[in-house]
Amino acid sequence: MKIQVVLIAAVAAVAAATPAAANEGRAEVRGGIVWADGFEEAVAGAAAGYDFDLGEAGFVGVEASADQVLIDGADPVFGATARIGGRIVKNGKLFAAGGYSFGEGEDQIHLGAGYEHRVAGPVYLKVEYRHFFSSFVDANVAAAGIGVNF
After folding, report:
1. Which residues on neighbouring strands pair with residue 112, listed in sequence order?
2. How far apart are CA 104 and CA 75, in angstroms?
3. pLDDT tens digits, 41-80
4. Cα separations (Å) of 103 from 33, 47, 93, 109, 114?
5. What H or E segment, with its residue span, contains residue 44?
């Protein structure tokens, strides 16, 4: 459990210590579906992160998250994720993501991709896919969310 606390603290420290410039913080809520080995269930979660500009076209980011499979007895899954991407249209970001997820069960590496589109002021909509690599059964998540940049 100590490594999880250290990872979340590191993400928060980097986000807090970075000057504003064109970089931006973000917070979001999301929901979707998780599936693995014939099992499907709803999932809901929240994330906070920070994106760092790499010029006009690119960015890298970090994120801390918490997600819950919506069945009785399921434990929350916490994550630390990095992402890299580009601005493909005026208000859109396409990205690849990868990180580490942990909770009461098995710790897992995850990889995925997504798209964010700013719709009004600081508000954006997001879709994302993640694949969780497990020594038991791999899982997939497809989610949509709404967030705000600050």
Report:
1. 97, 130
2. 6
3. 999 999 999 999 998 889 999 999 999 999 999 999 999 9
4. 18, 15, 29, 12, 23
5. strand 39-53
What is the pTM (predicted TM-score) of this model? 0.83
Burial call 28-63: b when 16+ CB within 10 Å, e when fewer: bebebebeeeeeeeebebebbbbbbeeeeeebebbb
Amino acid found at 122: P
The amino acid at 133? F
Token readout for 138 is: 């791999």
**Which CATH number does 2-149 carry?**
2.40.160.20
* Domain chopping of the chain, boundaries: 2-149
- Is the torsion defined by CA of 110, 50, 17, 53 positive or negative? positive
